[in-house]
Amino acid sequence: MTQLTDVRGEHLTTALFLAAGGVPVLPLRAGKKTFGNCRRCTGNACGGRPNMKTPGPCQCPKPCHGWAAATTDPDVIDSPAWAWAWREAAAVAYHPGGAGLTVVDLDNAEAIAWARETLPATRTVRTTRGEHWLYQGVMPSSNAVRPDVDIKSAMQYARWLGPGAGPLTALPDVVRALVVKEPAPVRPAAVTVPAPARGGTCPHRTPAFLERGIAMAEQRIADAASAVHTTVFATFLAVLSTHGRCGCLTEAHTARLFAAAQAKGESPRHCADAWTNALTRLGM
């Protein structure tokens, strides 16, 4: 085993401790940059992409770039092949997704204030500029999901800054929703909606027809095999374009549509956003 001395020894000791607990680790150079983690990739000489989401095109036996190099194998971590990297390392990084975690990276006080108002409390780690909020669960990573907030989980690395404080909370829908983009603008087909009759009654739809329309909308959402978010938005748009101006829809109908969407994995917030966006699109 390599002798552990000075800062290099501290980083290697930390890496081996984390790996023993199932956390995949890798050395991190100054500036929070990853190494090409073998000598032939020093300085990215192989033409690989050490900071991208895929290993580079080098001919190394194993992935040696970025998050893909993270490992829990002590024989790899404390090996002659990695000894040079630990000598130059400025910190230890880890792959949150590989450890079953998601990190919400909050870069300043404003982002932290937003998180405290919006996200469930969970384990918190202090950083040089803000905080890392850790949740139990894995999701896609994404930068700048909102000002000064990044998501680090699958196919991403984060700097190890200590175990943090507080219990881990299961990854909530409100965090998953941060990386879901709004559907592309949908141009609805031209729809002529008769004006409401005096007294607020609907002159062109019977209760049975409305019931059939809501049932068909529920079925359309339930049958969505992909692009659920887009399907929900398009369905809400269709229902509102037909029944939204004539006073037919009730809170019970809206609740049924929201329940159908949530059964497919949509969060309450995204249901409300899709409904609001549909109203806006129709000028209602």
Write a brief caption for the model.
By secondary structure, the protein is of the alpha+beta class. The protein has helices spanning 6-20, 74-77, 80-88, 109-118, 173-176, 207-222, 228-243, 251-263, 268-281, and strands at residues 25-29, 33-34, 91-94, 101-106, 123-126, 131-136, 142-146, 149-152, 158-159, 169-170. Mean pLDDT is 79; it is low at 1-5, 49-57 and 184-201.
Tell me the series of helices and strands, N- to C-terminal. HEEHHEEHEEEEEEHHHHH
Low-confidence stretches: 1-5, 49-57, 184-201
The N- to C-terminal Cα distance equals 70 Å
Question: What is the overall shape?
Answer: elongated
Strand content: 5-15%
Number of strands: 10
Structural class: alpha+beta
The largest pleated sheet is described as: 6 strands, mixed
pLDDT averaged over residues: 79
Helix content: 25-40%
* Alpha carbon gyration radius: 26 Å
Number of helical segments?
9
Note the topology.
Blueprint: H1 6-20, E1 25-29, E2 33-34, H2 74-77, H3 80-88, E3 91-94, E4 101-106, H4 109-118, E5 123-126, E6 131-136, E7 142-146, E8 149-152, E9 158-159, E10 169-170, H5 173-176, H6 207-222, H7 228-243, H8 251-263, H9 268-281
Parallel strand pairs: 6-10
Antiparallel strand pairs: 1-2, 1-3, 3-9, 4-6, 4-8, 5-6, 7-8
Helix pairs in contact: 6-7, 6-8, 7-9
Report on the architecture of this protein.
The protein has about 280 residues and is an alpha+beta fold. Helix content is about 35%, strand content about 15%. It is built from nine helices and ten strands. The chain has helices at about 5-20, 75, 80-90, 110-120, 175, 205-220, 230-245, 250-265, 270-280, and strands spanning about 25-30, 35, 90-95, 100-105, 125, 130-135, 140-145, 150, 160, 170. The strands form two sheets. Strands 4, 5, 6, 7, 8 and 10 form a six-stranded mixed beta sheet that branches. Helix 6 runs parallel beside helix 8 (about 250-265) and helix 7 (about 230-245) packs across helix 9 (about 270-280). It is elongated and about 80 Å long. It starts with 5 loop residues before the first helix and ends with a helix.
